[in-house]
Specification:
5-stranded mixed β-sheet; homodimer; DNA-binding; 11 helices; alpha/beta; 37% helix; globular; Nucleotidyltransferase, domain 5
DNA sequence: CGCCTTTCTTTGTCGCTGTCAATTAAGTCG
DNA sequence: CGACTTAATTGACAGCGACAAAGAAAGGCG
């Protein structure tokens, strides 16, 4: 799955005959998408002819991924293995579609300079995205409705362009290049300002019949809970989203705090902060258990601003930079306890994993969508 | 999708060339699985050569479906279109695996008599079923663990045998032969003793990584709600399952009632019954909204003992037979209101449909699984 | 050292599917 | 009747993959 394997191993993994592999591999070697490493495979000690390892020539085709928000554009240049070769951030001046298309075009031109191998673009946008047509049906943050973003960027750049919802793009990245490798059932939950989610079921990303899916943020946790922006009470997001947490702290007399301050207060034992973040953790855990119960998810990845961006959270609670938005570490035990309590039967076997998230990861997800498209459409049209 | 179509129509629907259809259809005509009706297709008024309609010869291959419970076996004889040709019910004397296999063998022999076209069997069992291997991993009601039911029945009867979880079997029947025809996203919710659910996502039935999926009965509705047998409080099933409803009525001083009595009381305006069933309806509606929010289900079918078995509920509330278990009609407005309230954005576009359910439908679902297996495996081995 | 065994890889042959582009079939309409 | 229209069939061909035999590249061993 990493792209390094002997032909025999490929035959075994794919269920095809060695002969079929030879024939499938040859043209790809010729165009340079694969190449043989000098390595002789399973090292020493074995009899017989040593296997020659073939691997993807990751630099043969480069892609650009862009995460589009109303404030900034995050762009990355990736190779076929979705390794980030270059990255750039651009503030958004004007978030009308034409202006964004213009800025994306410039950003792409910049990343593309000196890299003629760039062949496709992936764009990640929050909201209701129709990946098939490349249209952004509705994006609240950008205040867009039915924008043919894919077509426009493809026309301006001359590159094949894929558009996808941002969380689903992140899931795609994780599924092919992250912890989700080889899994056919995966849920990716983002915890931060909002509580988002993208789902992989039976090896396929769930898009939802009406463009809506994975709305774990609006799972009910407490009918007497705080009011959510969706109009209901007690949604996961109303309890565990940043705004909800700050609101409840303000009600307890702690106005004007940042989420990092709340986490710090909780770490130092302040009862209101401890209670509010415990409630938030239970809400997230309940949402995750609901996913596990309904879908039988094999693996659940939690990520988002609340997790932070460095691999291991600093457990000492000191030396943390000002404005740090991490609060998940405080919530985590409550998340897990609520999950274990509410997961039904063997649904509790789902593995929960934390994954720090940097902003480039969103862009990398977009790039992963572009790679996926390139790989699946290769050879056609 | 009903099996009646001209070759041209098939070509359009499948995306294949007319020529490919001709070649695909011919051998099936020869073995008698398809046949040409004399009809000339799109009736009058059109130019050109009239199309000849081909249709499945439903009687060419018959299947037997059996729903296995700890009390009774329900068996049906179906044709390839899953129309029920014969049905039989047998009380279960002894629910140990060997005894059940024995009874299934007898039941099959009875339905099979005089029908040499019978070629496969479908078995529907509640609990954790591994459809791939035909093993019943765990069935609480039958108190079975890891029973190789498929193998045993296949050996005894000499017929290809498919085993599936009962609710998923019902979904399969609905998906191919019921309201779900042509849909790629469907949720089937059963309301009665328990609250069950099976899900179709991206055209595939969700089995869950650990054999658990669709547990909408254990979605949280109210953290202060009644205790559920799963150990938590306020699950949908604890509030809207038959046992939960009766329990709450008993707490209000109405002990010893049946579910039909509760419904009748509610219809006559008795406040406790009205409240208890309204709570139940809201719980079901919340569960359904959760499915819609997470999966973007296109269509939701509600069925189960609570719906009753005749096509249209008798609205006058009189002349109902004693012991009628229908209570859903009282719950329905609350279900819909809760659904509309909690469905997020366009997830509310999901169509909700009621479907009366007779016990033979369960068996027919099992038959549908057998037909599905026959169709997909036809031509191999 | 040369031959044997083992394992990986390639290649020739074949069948299956499905496309493409005629060709044939069966109607309607003027 | 002949032009037109749509349906169905057919032959030629291409792609994919199975199967089996052959070739290649090692190590072991007499």
């Amino acid at each position: 799955m990493t792209g390094d394997a002997s032909r025999t191993a490929l035959a075994r993994d794919t269920g095809l005959t060695p002969g079929a592999i030879t024939r499938a591999v040859r043209p790809l070697l010729e165009v340079g998408l694969l190449h043989e490493t000098g390595d002789r495979a399973p090292a020493e000690g074995t009899l017989g002819r040593p296997a020659t390892v073939v691997t993807v020539q990751a630099e043969a085709h480069l892609v650009i991924g862009v995460k589009v928000t109303a404030d900034e554009l995050f762009g990355v240049l990736c190779d076929l293995r979705c390794r980030v070769l270059d990255e750039v951030t651009v503030p958004v001046r004007d978030h009308r579609p034409e202006a964004i298309v213009e800025q994306i075009t410039d950003l792409v031109a910049g990343l593309r300079a000196g890299h003629p191998e760039v062949g496709s673009i992936g764009l990640a946008v929050s909201g209701d995205v129709d990946a098939a047509s490349g249209h952004v049906a509705y994006s609240p943050f950008l205040t867009w409705r039915d924008v043919p973003l894919g077509e426009q960027v493809a026309e301006r750049t001359g590159l094949a362009t894929t558009v996808e919802n941002d969380v689903r793009a992140l899931l795609t990245g994780e599924r092919w290049y992250g912890v989700g490798r080889g899994l056919s059932s995966l849920a990716l939950v983002t915890v931060g300002t909002g509580i988002g989610c993208a789902l992989l079921v039976n090896g396929q990303v769930v898009h939802g019949s009406f463009g809506v899916a994975g709305e774990v943020g609006h799972v009910l946790v407490d009918p007497d809970g705080p009011l959510c922006h969706c109009g209901n009470r007690g949604c996961v997001e109303a309890i565990a989203g940043t705004a909800g947490i700050l609101e409840r702290m303000a009600q307890a007399g702690f106005g004007g705090l940042g989420i990092g301050d709340v986490a710090d207060l909780a770490r130092s034992g302040q009862p209101d902060a401890v209670r509010v973040l415990a409630d938030a953790g239970r809400a997230v855990g309940t949402g995750i258990a609901t996913i596990a119960n309904l879908l039988g998810a094999q693996h659940i990845v939690i990520t988002g601003e609340a997790i932070g961006s460095s691999p291991a959270p600093d457990d000492r609670g000191e030396g943390r930079p000002a404005g740090d938005e991490r609060d998940y570490d405080v919530m985590d035990p409550h998340v897990r306890r609520a999950f274990e309590q509410r997961a039904f039967g063997s649904a509790a076997s789902a593995a929960i994993e934390l994954r720090p998230l940097r902003f480039v990861d969103w862009a990398r997800g977009a790039a992963a969508c572009a790679v996926e498209d390139f790989v699946t459409h290769y050879g056609r049209s």
